[in-house]
Amino acid sequence: MNNIGHAWYQKGDYQRALQWFDSALALQQQEPALPYHIAMTMNNKGVLLMMAGKWEPALTAFEHAADITTRINYYDDLANVLHNMGAIKDQIGEYDAALNLYQRSSEALKLAGIPDDHLQVAELKMKIAFVYINQARWADALDTLHKVKEIRERILPASHADMGRTWFTMGIALRSQERYDEAFDHMKRALAIYEHAYSHGHPHTANTYNSMANLKAVQSQYNEALPLYEQAKEQFRQFYGTDEHSDIARVLNNMGQAHRHLGNLSKALDYLQKALKMRQDTLGINHPDTATTWVNLSLVYRAKGDLKIALEHAQHGLNIRRAKLQSEHEDLVEIENFVVQLEQEILALDHIQIT
User: Fold this and answer.
1) Residues 180, 184, 186, 187: what is their CA dihedral angle, to the nearest 10 degrees?
2) Which of 93, 113, 241, 270 is the most buried (most CB within 10 A)?
3) What is the homologous superfamily of the domain 1-114 according to CATH?
4) pLDDT per residue over 224-241, tens digit each?
5) Does domain 225-355 have CATH number 3.40.50.970?
6) pTM given for the model
């Protein structure tokens, strides 16, 4: 049954895979002499729940798997389970807990006899670097990523996709330190690897183009950013086989922002309206990314002098964010201040017209 669950997992039918894993567990738990099989099925179930964003049930499944693998001294598998648990904690913003679990995973790898220069160790360090990035610990992130690169360079060919991931992630950390030229060079190296590794459109390639464009945009080099955004859009389109996807909407949103900064307000509206509809269709009307596009449209209408329309769009974004974010969240505070500013500008304009 576990194998059947794996087969459905490979086909992408996660709900059916989960049903088979549950059936396998029901049988395995009747045989106490099979603790390892129970642990592996629990881990498989946890992975499926994690992919579905069901964090608490996933953690429960992983905790069961961790208890069993600890008890029977299967340290390699324990390291994998703890790794998965750390990924969930990172995803939900519990960064210290994530680092603790990754440290426990590292200790389990040592108990399993895995050497410090093994690819499993490199992958674990990569995840630790992501946590450091989320904590804005840029120096720690870069130091860890250099260690990842050293391990992978000794084992993998320079053209391996994991080398691309390493260069790309180092670029992200460098960008956050405002070391833009270095970040761009690292991303270019990642892009060259991805274009060699993947013959057709691929999300890694598309995301790299998008990030390179963002680097140009943050330096106000919008004319250089736009062709890179076009490349990102085309890569996503080739991979997904459609023009309608949330990743494509993200790129359209960025292109709209670039055109706004260039003063191409009609083009900005066109891109942002397409992005808004696509995000509403693919993510839902109440998704935070949908709110972002409402606010970006508001900025365009404000630039056009259509303050009342700008206020309507900003309030749409504000209402979504209020339902999703804590009252002190900086994104919510920012849009609240923007709405107040628009209201004041409208009052001032009305006063001028009256007088």
Assistant:
1) 130
2) 270
3) Tetratricopeptide repeat domain (1.25.40.10)
4) 999 999 999 999 999 889
5) no
6) 0.78
